[in-house]
Amino acid sequence: MPVIEVKSLKKFYQVHKKEPGLIGSLKSLVARKYEDVKAVDNISFEIEEGELVGFIGPNGAGKTTTLKCLSGLLYPTAGVVSVLDFNPWDRKAAFLKQISLVMGQKNQLWWDLPAMETFILNKEIYEVPETQFEETLGELVKLLEVEDVLKIQVRKLSLGQRMKCELIAALLHSPKVLFLDEPTIGLDVVMQKKIRDFIKEYNRRKKSTIILTSHYMGDVKELCQRVIIIDKGKIVFDGQLSEIVEKYADHKVLSVVFGKEIDPKKLSEIGEVKEYSFPKAVISVRREAVSVAAAELLQHFPVADLNVEEVPIEDIIREVFSGKDLA
Amino acid sequence: MRKYVAWAKAGIKSTLVYSSDFFLWGLNEFLDTLIFLFIWMIIYGERNSIAGFSLPETVTYLIGVGLISNIISSPIPERIEKDIQEGKLSNFLVKPMSYPRTRFFGSLSGKPLNVLIRIIVYALVAAVFRDKFIINLDATILVLFLISIIFSLIINALLDFCTGFISFWTITTSGFSGLARTLKSIFSGGYAPIVFFPRWFQITAGILPFSYTRYFPMLIYLRKISMMETIRGLGIQILWVAILYLLSRFVWRRGVKRYEGVGI
Ligand SMILES: Nc1ncnc2c1ncn2[C@@H]1O[C@H](COP(=O)(O)OP(=O)(O)O)[C@@H](O)[C@H]1O
Ligand SMILES: [Mg+2]
């Protein structure tokens, strides 16, 4: 029994269309014209208990809209959504107590108070027993290393510290299902890594089901085995991250370090030269031709070092979004 | 219930951060009211009474109405507008708690400190006009007066919710809530006792709920109405509570549906 089931989900926003100019404004006062924005257009997927799934796509792809439908904030235009056997938009207390939604840009912490006050408040809201609260809080605080910021007014915290506290506030009631919308947005690289490590560890320990959205490959590459890629409201890929690489990267990358100067022209006989600046070169070679190319390089060039690498996932995704058919 | 108490507590702590502001507001209020009362003294001049109100009665009325206004007023409409526009309402909808209840109890949380400061401010004003201020110590009257203020507070909060929920349909409600506030002040008798106005105005004010939030409690205090009229007025207050509760609940439900994007 999957924890999350989405069947043919559609969410269209009706936006009021105004023609330009004064006449347009007047016309729209009399007869409003509406236009559908197909934010989510017929998507289906299932997620099992304990999975950590990356939901990725460029800005405006429909990620936030999907999470809002799953957490009951938006009523779908069509389709079936079931989360923990509930209709999310009934917003039953029993359902809301088992989920959490964290939006990177929307804070729930009380701005003028220390984060601890919000935690205590959430304890009451979710009716968490005192001992369980202490235990969970202790564990989260230790994992995120925020012991010394809990008593400081939230407005005085750094963005990273605030995000950590947001996560704690969202997790105090030990939700079974966690929706994270761009949790690393705006953070520096070090902090991004800390948050990612935390999410991974949390998923491992608690076996909670997590969907994490990002427009940003780094997040997903390190965290998730399964990714769902969405673009323009449609799912363009759903599967193992490693599968994308196997299926859609028909090239591999040879990085070479030469011992002596070489003739760059000759290099292009091996494959497509992506970069050359002595002593390093990066050459893209068809997957099946890799061993031949490597052998040739070693035979005809003064090679000091040679590495065969997969094409970076970012590049593959970029190709996916630029319209290469994945079916 | 505990969760809303906890929310109110956090609200109190949050307002205390700005407690130095309270002093300035208080001073501002004090000066405004003094000037307002001096103007009324000029209006009275040599006259003994206007529409049955003697000068001391009017002075007491205006001080009382000022205090009641401050006790019952709340930042609810602005709050709701912000929550809807900035999408913060989502934070409440994904939690097992009621948004309107949270905001109502949250608005109560600011009250104790606020009321204390206002009582001091208006007591000072009354001290300045001590030869004109009527002190009524009749226990029955005072109890009825307090009960009517509690209903005023609830009526006012429900009106505030209805105004605030308009934000579900419009981009900005500040123009609208400004107009609503002014109408509310006039029709509730905030500027002058309603009997001072023309007949048609008095009839309109009688039909609207506003006069039951400020005018009516002060009529009780000043013994301008009989016991029968007082009981009847309290009954009408209860009726308004019921009507406005149902109305605000209806508007809230429609609004949330719109927020969720149900077929609109
Ligand atoms: N409330 C709204 N009204 C109208 N259009 C919207 C609304 N919210 C989002 N959209 C549009 O729907 C599409 C998907 O948005 P969103 O789900 O926020 O994408 P993402 O989170 O992937 O960046 C975008 O084209 C966006 O402009
Ligand atoms: Mg988004």
Describe it for me?
- The complex is a heterodimer of chains A (327) and B (264).
- Chain A folds into 2 domains: 4-245, 3-Layer(aba) Sandwich (Rossmann fold), CATH 3.40.50; 250-309, Alpha-Beta Plaits (2-Layer Sandwich).
- Chain A is 36% helix and 30% strand.
- Chain A has 12 helices and 13 strands.
- Chain A has helices spanning 21-30, 63-70, 93-96, 115-125, 130-144, 159-171, 189-206, 217-223, 241-248, 264-267, 290-300, 313-321; strands at 4-17, 33-47, 52-56, 78-83, 99-103, 177-181, 209-214, 226-231, 234-240, 251-258, 272-277, 280-286, 303-310.
- In chain A, the strands form 3 sheets. Chain A has a 6-stranded mixed beta sheet with strand order 5-6-7-3-8-9, sandwiched between helices. A 4-stranded antiparallel beta sheet of chain A has the order 11-12-10-13, covered by helices on one side. In chain A, strands 2-1-4 form a 3-stranded antiparallel beta sheet.
- In chain A, α7 links the parallel β6 (177-181) and β7 (209-214).
- Chain A is globular and about 70 Å long.
- The model of chain A has no long low-confidence stretch (mean pLDDT 87).
- Chain B has 264 residues and is mostly helical.
- Chain B has helices at 2-16, 19-44, 55-72, 76-85, 89-93, 99-109, 111-128, 139-165, 174-187, 199-207, 215-221, 227-260, and strands spanning 49-50, 53-54.
- In chain B, strands 1-2 form a two-stranded antiparallel sheet.
- In chain B, 31% of the residues are buried.
- The interface between A and B is medium-sized, with 33 and 26 residues.
